[in-house]
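haha ok so turns out i had the wrong file open the whole time. this is the CORRECT one, sorry everyone. sequence first:
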Amino acid sequence: MMLKGANSADVVSRIKEKMQTIQKSLPPDVIIEPYLDRTDLVNRAITTVEKNLIEGALIVIFVLVLFLGNLRAGLIVASAIPSDKWKKVCSLDKAKWTYWLALPLGFLKSQVPLSQA
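then structure:
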């Protein structure tokens, strides 16, 4: 059973180890086969997200350098984006909020006119 906040990859690997142990205790004609194993799908999704994040960051840096005309200025401005996101994630973690709970609140805050902010 997977507990809340547990790493799914670790849970699946422990289950596979237990299945091998249980398989040894069963008669030879009884075989345990997984019904649904999405380990490969999850690993490919993580790889795709990592690749897209890297490509997106490089495109942002390129566009900033192109418009600002200075490599140093483009890198400084580009470094502000992930540092801002990291601060938000840390503050959400400290408040025990999930990102999906805070996302609509951030959207609502962004819709407030500046005169009322």
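Residues 8-110 form one domain.
again sry for the mixup
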